[in-house]
Design a protein that fits this description.
Elements: H1 2-31, H2 34-71, H3 75-78, H4 91-95
Length: about 100
């Protein structure tokens, strides 16, 4: 009785193992059928369309932010005296020997 139970359980285990492997093999084989390839290409095309639209949306948002930043009037543009002087770019301040710029 124990021997029969052992061999039945071995048979069930082997059957489950084989069916699992066959199902995986069928899934792999189905990927390379015309229908599977068509589904993969369709999925890729949808993913690329979505990525393209996301990219265009992000580009539009960045362009809007840059445009607003460049067209907005700033305080330093209205009052030239309020700008800080960078001695590396301001040749008059750099060449002034009486008051050398601080570094």
């Amino acid at each position: 009785m124990v021997r029969r139970l052992f061999w039945v359980s071995v048979g069930v285990g082997v059957t489950v193992y084989v069916l699992t492997k066959v199902n995986k093999a069928n899934a792999i084989i189905n990927r390379f059928t015309p229908e599977g390839v068509s589904a993969s290409v369709t999925n890729l095309a949808q993913t690329l369309r979505q990525a393209s639209s996301d990219l265009k949306e992000a580009m539009a948002e960045n362009e809007q932010a840059i445009t607003e930043a460049l067209t907005a009037p700033s305080d330093s543009a209205r009052d030239p005296q309020s700008r800080s002087i960078d001695p590396w770019w301001d040749t008059e301040a750099f060449l002034d020997e009486e008051n050398p710029p601080e570094m």
